[in-house]
């Protein structure tokens, strides 16, 4: 290719001559504008000069530039503007973050960039506060923009020095005319030399602070009235107004505290009462202390009541124009519920109204909560609290502590309790559906935590309250012990009612579908009973009775045998304990290697088959042991039933996703949910299932109650069925008897019910005996004469007792000696005397609220009328079909329905 030489382009202008550029055109004026224009009036910018000369100081929020959709602030800082130059420093580290020019006035809500950091103005501080260093200590006395520089807002920004011509120009602009055009002929006189001060209305930014444009607001607009004005309208429909304090400081006024309608409209009647109760306790209106116990049963909305209380205290004060009651709040809960609390705050208040600091790992800066102003609420787990308790003492301190699942604070030496007490916070609240779990000693610990010293010392409480009450609850207590225990119980209930509120699930009957609880007594298989007896006959059994540590190991072994003897076999990687090495040779190898000998697994298999084939419902299966969950998992796999599993090995970040998946999918995607009682037995909402199976039982009744409440909660649409599996005559049944005794004591003190302990200490000592009678020992100890046909003999006996006075002269009917069962008669007389003492109310016994059903009676019914009666009695068509099976191993049933 031949390249042509470069030839520079030539530009020829049409008006150019001889290559010279054209001359500039002279600007001419028309004849109508020959008059000389007046020079522009120079106006001084007083705002800029004030900033450059005096200096301004602000508290700000700052963050690094990022492209995230939902941005968060990195921390709090201080901004100083002197001589038109801005300097940004971090409050926590006191290090300089950046510099840059700034010559414009700033107001709260303004944003700008300094040194590569994005900042937002939070407030204005005085020069004296800035140089004193108070902001770095977290005790800055903020003043409003109007108080700090009144001249700048009210004078400098509102006053302009303008000439008469400038005034005319403003007037023309107002009427929509062109300000550059000449004025009318009659207004063209030359303006005088003097100037005039004209006051304009305030700019919009000076009159109104920045507000998030899309955030709904329920705050009542302020007026010029000097009368106290509440934050929310107390006259609106269903307004929730808190109780007014009895006294008021001098020169102050009392104003109504009204719950924000954003939350108030969602509260049910019992929740409104709960919020009022907690508020009065925290404000010291009900007792000497400022603590409270919210002891509502599971599913009654303790979380929503707590959020409503905190939001009210964070924003309002009954003393007019005083700061809010609470500035920093701390919520301590089990680690598995930290994320649940965060979601609840987002659900009810959103992300904009309140700053919630979730401390779930050590990489987060705790000073963002303690020293900063962006966060008012902190959520932390019990274990993590012990690590950061010293750092929490810095800054302005904690104003209120909420202890969720507070029954975990069992002893005064509990590390989590000591960590909370070290914060020196007087306002404390315990949330627990089961505040009394094992004994009155734990209950005293909870009371002394929320209101220290109210019940005196622990030793005095044990002597004056615990011992007399427990002694009076024994079946063979004397008349003096009954009278003393009754008096001490009433006094304890009177004291605790001042700061503890308790509502049972009965208040939800109009909101939730009915539930039916079945206590299923399973007769052990031949192989299972043989393995149980072999362990009890072993030499190690007699040794364990005299050694507490070995006794605990033996209890663990027997609980495994109740679930399945195959659970005694250790995994390949694990070395069996010394006790297991001694016991395993006593059990046949085929029993240890197979799950077929487990009676619970057989009943579960039959129950799951009926649920899957005859209903569209799903099921939750709960166990205290991961090895038991492994066994159930293999059963579900062999049946090709889909399932999900949550136990201690499930990462916390994935737990909520599993719950949501189970609740939103049908049974083809997830028919069963395997749940560890220790890891997921509290706080989870598993309303995707309407049936729950408690495969084994725990010594603590609260553990089982918490697990049972996972499905009977807000949002549940179907009637709930609860199954608790027990091996009849074995350790399972003895543990259940212990639960009944503990719940009887809890009902007496917490629920204010005059129920009694059903079993004596002597009857509960024989834990290891295998009772192989046809009916369970539990029913025999009740002395119930229903013979397994539904119960109700207690009412008949009471009627008999009430008629004794009328029939004193009537002779008893005679019976043949051969027809009298002496053992049965002695048991009935003994039980009759035990229940006939003053102060005892048999109708309130827990197990007398259940229907007592012998499965032999169900299988022997042939008439249609009787079958209908049995169906009403059991109140569960699926379970009824299981009980009718010929090879069914269920021997007895205790049933209670809320319907």
TrEMBL record:
InterPro entries tied to this protein: Helicase_ATP-bd, Helicase_C-like, P-loop_NTPase, SNF2-like_sf, SNF2/RAD54-like_C, SNF2_N, SNF2_RAD54_helicase_repair
Disordered: annotated span: 1-40, 168-192, 792-813
GO annotations of cellular component type: nucleus
Residue ranges constituting the Helicase ATP-binding domain according to the UniProt record: 283-453
KW Hydrolase (keyword) present: yes
Single annotated GO MF: ATP binding
ATP-binding recorded as keyword: yes
Swiss-Prot/TrEMBL GO biological process terms: double-strand break repair via homologous recombination; reciprocal meiotic recombination
SMART domains according to UniProt: DEXDc (SM00487), HELICc (SM00490)
Coiled coil: none
Domain of life the protein comes from: Eukaryota
Keywords noted in UniProt: ATP-binding, Hydrolase, Nucleotide-binding
Domain Helicase C-terminal: 603-765
Biased composition (Acidic residues): 183-192, 793-810
Gene3D superfamilies xref list: P-loop containing nucleotide triphosphate hydrolases, SWI2/SNF2 ATPases, N-terminal domain, Tandem AAA-ATPase domain
Stored Pfam families: Helicase_C, SNF2-rel_dom
Name of the protein: DNA repair and recombination protein RAD26
Natural source organism: Zopfia rhizophila CBS 207.26
